[in-house]
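I'll show a record.
***
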Amino acid sequence: MSDDYPIRPANMDAAREQAVEVLTEHFSRNVMDMDEFEGLLDSVNRCSTTSELRELLSKLPPLESLKSATDLMSAPGGPPVVVDADRVRPRGFLLSVLSGTTRAGRWIPARKSFALGVLGGISLDFREAVLGAGVTDVNVLAVLGSVEIIVPPEMAVEVDGMAVLGGFEYQTNAPPRTDPNLPILRVRGLAVLAGVNVEVRLPGETSRDAKKRRRLERTGARRRTQVLEEPNESDGRQLWCLWAH
């Protein structure tokens, strides 16, 4: 039997959790679709021995032979690069009226930026941006338009905004940053019949990829909890044997 996925934990709960992590990694690399993933997770829960788990995992291709989309990306989580204060403009203005405005790649945002989108779209990608020390402010006003702000997981972000017949959204699972020396991106604004979305993405990740990753993280976490909490037939047999003796 293949040793690509050795499972040597002290109990079956830990073994099942380890197997779920292996399946989750394969799913993230597009080895299987959602139905196959859910089916294999159910199979993991039905396994009563580590030998059965090894047999189930042995049918998967070794991870070393797969190419993940993240292999082409720089590793996230590193400390952000801080630019010298004299290279940071004090103010910046971005305007989009019946058109589109984009900032992406290696760029230096102003200390205070104002973004106005009227019947247009603005996209600000901070994944490769170089911020000055301290707080970088982005003030947004979207009217019948949209403003998209993309940030990397390692960036400290503060969002405070409101929407009138629109949306002002920000959601992240990234742990809070406690280092006071890290630069902070502060987004504030108003959306009127418009949408402002602050989204966390990995380097090179599209919005669709980010949604898939978040769905995978939620599914994996939920299924890991279910696998650990759901009763197993073998556990019942063991309890019966203990009671009978």
Remarks:
- The longest strand covers residues 135-143.
- Helices lie at 12-28, 34-46, 50-58, 207-229, 233-244.
